[in-house]
């Protein structure tokens, strides 16, 4: 049995690691241990529950600032690593927890496997700090599981050896399949459906977030029959302006963050998604829901190229224009809805589990021969 330490910190990491955890639990050769860093509190708890995960270790979040969080997280993860005989550390994505988990593994000479490797904008400020974090993880990881061929190519161009890179699809699609299967989810709405909005990216805080909210207010007032559903991130930098600008509109429904089951139902029932989230760009095409990205760039150009998403930026006028274009042009809408999903088919976790089995068995053989 190989002991594998899975490190999660935020809502999306839990979602994207959960199907892999269940796959590893069932595989017969690995013993996965889940460590939650506490980077997200309530939003993480919601997700762990949704996916039936009881972490083996949950760290207390040390202080409010990222610096205190990182230092205390590093100390505690290092202790956990020192106390076990770990075959592998598994991290996902591009958060502070991802990076600290990988860094601790690197210092302890435990191989690091990076899920969702190779996403890039090559602009260290956008998204900040995620672009820097994921590039740093790529420097110290031993196994790079890229969701798409493009992500794999980015890693090759950064001189990561070919045999360390595998294209697996994104595990978020597995998470969607898992929840749909378990709860027999299906579309509940007749007709057009609602406009689903999320916004939380650090680069959008301040004036961009206000512009986004004013755009939503414009569209909601022009189309009183259109219901807008906006689950609002708990960070007050986000929730305060959102509530101030959109709070009084009768067809705009602001809610606390949804658990994963509610979110996938909301996605199934949506007409259009407006978001700066990474995960939603990957998920919306699974259900054939067109998506407008509230950013000027994306590390997921596959969605734009496939035709299931468009970049709408963060200017009020442009966002309104792009929504109106889909509202009035059924052909353009249909083309986006039928573009398919370039991020996977729900088999990424099985693929990663198989690849790890081979890679770790190879390592064992090497060790025995040595
Ligand atoms: C720069 C960037 O793109 N970074 C990404 C970032 O994640 P993100 O931008 O995708 O973050 P969020 O938008 O918070 O999460 C999205 C998920 O949450 C679900 N959701 C959302 C609202 C809600 O009320 N209820 C929910 O259930 C939703 O369906 C979806 O699955 O970090 C990840 C981890 O390292 C990376 O993978 C990933 O690159």
From TrEMBL:
<dbReference type="Pfam" id="PF02350">
    <property type="entry name" value="Epimerase_2"/>
</dbReference>
<protein>
    <recommendedName>
        <fullName>UDP-N-acetylglucosamine 2-epimerase (non-hydrolyzing)</fullName>
        <ecNumber>5.1.3.14</ecNumber>
    </recommendedName>
</protein>
<feature type="domain" description="UDP-N-acetylglucosamine 2-epimerase">
    <location>
        <begin position="34"/>
        <end position="357"/>
    </location>
</feature>
<dbReference type="InterPro" id="IPR003331">
    <property type="entry name" value="UDP_GlcNAc_Epimerase_2_dom"/>
</dbReference>
<comment type="similarity">
    <text>Belongs to the UDP-N-acetylglucosamine 2-epimerase family.</text>
</comment>
<keyword id="KW-0413">Isomerase</keyword>
<dbReference type="InterPro" id="IPR029767">
    <property type="entry name" value="WecB-like"/>
</dbReference>
<dbReference type="GO" id="GO:0008761">
    <property type="term" value="F:UDP-N-acetylglucosamine 2-epimerase activity"/>
</dbReference>
